[in-house]
Design brief:
Nucleotidyltransferase, domain 5; 13 helices; about 45% helix; five-stranded mixed beta sheet; alpha/beta
């Protein structure tokens, strides 16, 4: 039995799916994070988590020796650099065709169900990717929290802290964010607040988690929080504009709505209605040909689609459209 493997390895979880020759999903599994291979213990964690999820998926369909199984094709979508990860994965996974791609590649394949288009991803970080019918691709952003990640949950959390500090320095208006951060982080002064991050007591991921509180304050009517989220939406819309400019030709009437293409969004930051409405409005105004929509399929199914393609198999639309229910 020929099997195809799709894996999405992220900062919080690793998702694995297995498909058969007819394009049916026959097994699924999930595990912990499998990125950050540059950190101490990172390569070992990647190997452990991937093997765990693959073994569980294969065991669920009766394959007694999963470590000896050879997939017809496998595709891994991984955050960050892929060179170290590729070396590990090619050593531990048997496949006639094995590819390791940046997670924006499999996310785009899933978002558009393999069609030309653009995806903007905003979770802890942010990145955009576009691809046209000729197979030309471009990535925008994804430079990490020190030099990029505009509009991401991290960016939103940092903006919340900066708003609190600005209020303390009387350089910015009062905001509901100040009592929320002080109370929930257990601090009494801005100095104690910033010390938690500078000392490493609270992590970058924790700072990104503050974005949920920003949305809460925005829904309570706080203007500062609303402005932060709307600016995040505008920044992410600029990512989309840049990706579109790189992969779609500017021939003909630039304002025409003919030959429309999807501009999809994915990631936890888009759960904010303020951010999403700002993003949608800006993209629709700047790119008349864009059809703004959520991702059609999750990134792990984008990996599976790419695995089939690497083996020269184009699945019928009916098979792909049924994946959402199968992977729910």
């Amino acid at each position: 039995m020929k099997l195809f493997l799709g894996v999405d390895g992220g900062q919080t979880a690793t998702q694995t799916v297995v498909g058969d020759e007819q394009g049916r999903i026959v097994a699924q599994s999930s595990g912990g994070p499998s990125n950050h291979t540059e950190e101490p213990g990172g390569p070992e964690r990647l190997e452990r988590v991937v093997l765990q999820t693959v073994r569980e998926a294969l065991a669920s369909i009766g394959i007694s020796k999963p470590d000896e199984h050879t997939f017809a094709a496998a595709c891994f979508g991984m955050t960050g650099e892929t060179e170290i990860k590729a070396a590990i994965l090619k050593r531990i996974i048997r496949a006639d065709h094995l590819s390791v791609v940046h997670d924006s590649v499999n996310a785009l394949a899933g978002a558009t169900a393999g069609r030309p288009g653009v995806i903007v991803m905003a979770g802890t970080g942010s990145v955009a990717r576009g691809a046209n019918a000729a197979g030309e691709e471009a990535r925008v952003g994804g430079w990490g929290h020190l030099f990029g990640d505009e509009g991401s949950a991290y960016w939103i959390g940092r903006a919340a802290v900066r708003a609190t500090l600005g209020e303390y320095d009387r350089m910015a208006p009062q905001t509901r964010l100040t009592p929320i951060l002080f109370e929930r982080l257990g601090v009494a002064t801005p100095y104690q607040l910033t010390e938690k991050y500078y000392a490493g007591t609270l992590s970058r991921d924790h700072l990104a988690g503050l974005s949920v509180w920003v949305d809460e304050a925005a829904r309570q009517g706080d203007q500062v929080a609303q402005d932060i989220l709307r600016q995040a939406g505008r920044d992410l819309a600029q990512y989309a504009q840049a990706a579109v400019a790189l992969v779609f030709p500017r021939s003909g009437d630039a304002s025409s709505k003919s030959s429309r293409f999807p501009v999809c969004y994915a990631g936890g930051a888009f759960q904010s209605g303020f951010l999403l409405s700002s993003f949608t409005e800006c993209v629709s105004a700047a790119i008349p040909r864009a059809q703004v929509s959520p991702a059609a399929l999750p990134p792990v199914l984008g990996s599976l689609l790419l695995a089939y393609r690497s083996a020269g198999i184009e699945l019928p639309p009916g098979a792909v459209s049924g994946w959402t229910q199968s992977a729910a």
